[in-house]
Amino acid sequence: MTRRWSGLAAFLVAAPVLVGVAYSLFASVGLRGGSGGFSAEPWTAAFADHRLVIGLAWSLWVAAIATAIASLAAILVATLFRSGTRSSGVARFLAVVPLPLPHVAAGVLGVLVLGQSGLLARGAFLAGWIDQPAAMPALIYDRWGIGLILVLAWKEFPFIALIAFSLLAGRGKSLEEAARTLGAHRWAIFRTVTWPVLWRGLAPAVVAVFAFVTGTYEATVLLAPSDPLALPLMTIERYTDIGVASRAEAHVLVLMGLLAGLGAVVLHEAVRAWDRPSA
Amino acid sequence: MIMGCNRGAPEPASNAVTALPWDSVLVLARGSTVTWRMWRGDPSINAFIDQWVAPRLVAQYGITLEVVPGQGPGIVNLLVTEREAGARGSTDLLWINGATFASLRREALLLGPWADRLPNAQYVDTASPIIARDFEQDPGGYESPWGQVEYALIYDNARVSSPPRNVTALGAWIDAHPGRFTHDQSFSGMTFLKILMYALAGGAERFQGGFDSLAYVAGRDSVMGWLTRHRASFWRGGATYPAGVAELHRLFANGEIDFSMSNNENEVITKVRQGILPVTARPLLLTDGMLANAHYLGISVNARNPAGAMVVADFLLSPEAQLEKLRPEVWADGSVLDVSRIPEPWRGRFMAQARDQHALSPESLRLHARPEVAPEYHERLTEDWRRMIRANAPR
Which residues of chain A neighbour B241 with C-beta distances below 8 Å? Predict the structure, then answer.
């Protein structure tokens, strides 16, 4: 009985996504979203275009690096400031301050700080490190997405950190105490108790961040270069193109983005299944 | 499907409304609400609509105006989705032109013809090719004009004392000042490419009379050749381009580049007043010719209140509304009326309209205005620029 209800609950959660996927599938072959009729051309056209592959790879790169930086920073901060002291409490509070900030605001902040006429450039100019603000190395609209990666990592870090704090304060703490009474050293405790507790607890959040960041538009449109063109930018560009014909291709790109997120989820499940026997 | 739930008095079919005598349209519209989907990105335009138009519609016609955001392809996507869902319309009035008008007509999503039945339509400057043809399409009564603009570059005369006056001189200026010029990737930037196409490949006349692929390929190759020649001297070496005109304005205002551009020659006036652009910013017309176009109002085919929408469109065409919209401290949007046709006292007021110090003279605007061509030119040029230039950033 419980099992049946949980199945229904899962279905209700998944239903909107499934409806969206179904619509995108139909629209991507010309059966929805304007006059026309069935055609496989949007798929062949999308895959014949090397820009799609490059854009997808670029978005995965940005998402992977930003997620990795955010996760490592969160783990570092959570392990460094876990004690009950006042200063640790303040540090934990400060770490989650950016959490309620909207992504578009984070993007604008990125432009204001990292742009070639931004605070960093003006500061470096005033300090005499560069001859003019424009001599500042390009950190936004740059080919490697450095500015975008920094902003996304900074924006996602509090979310992962918040979970890391609660993991260490709860289950982690009692297991560590057990290990300590059994005579384990600090490094041994970290390796055999703290780290496994952290990564198993954080993995779902990290996967969620990766999937979100791959498809995020607001910060990307403000900070990403025009070549390579990130997947979410390419998707919106096709969807809002003047010619209605590009709509179908936009839906192909939507499905690609979804597939990337799904890939991360599947990978996570596989790693969990492989890890379970030893746990 | 749920049937038979439509009780009460049957509403007249939308198409019947467009054929009613004007007095009946006014009666139907009284006490109604008109939902207007329009671009909401400019505070001066929003203030004109919300604080000047809306209260007058209530006072004069008993119409409540409800403004919702949406523009261009978004409007097409929305109406297509509504038709698929069999939903009642969420929009009565639409702010459209050019390619959006073409898409909506192609998909049969516009109501009409109705525009020529508006009483104030008699004052429209129908002799102007900019107003009478929307990207070479005949509005055919499916849209009513309500404003016109001309493309202009924007420069800062505190930084650039003698700006280039034509495309050749602009190219030389770019090469002499590396990193100080770019255009954006969206509508304004692609319109700039079309201006280059006119200038470099035989003028606007060469591209008139519908889409011609031979003329297009010749024009495109000239544009891409010019861009390739000067690209290394563009901002960031032409490796990346600002997403939209707002980013372009920001780069210009922050001194990262020396030129911005706008679809509206008077945008510099409103942006200076808003403090976004420096007071020394000036509009600049290139003597090769600048694109001019009109914007229009359409009524969606599934509109709930076509009568109200017609009354609003008529009010916006009135000399009173056109003059208010033209004032530099309001919006500085060009009037679509023929001053010689409108009655006094409005004619005198139009003539007496003081010009802002940033404004260009009507004579030079008229001299440099070139009409838009078939929307395919814009579509193809955009796609080819993305493929040939943008996707091949120099490393």
Answer: 226
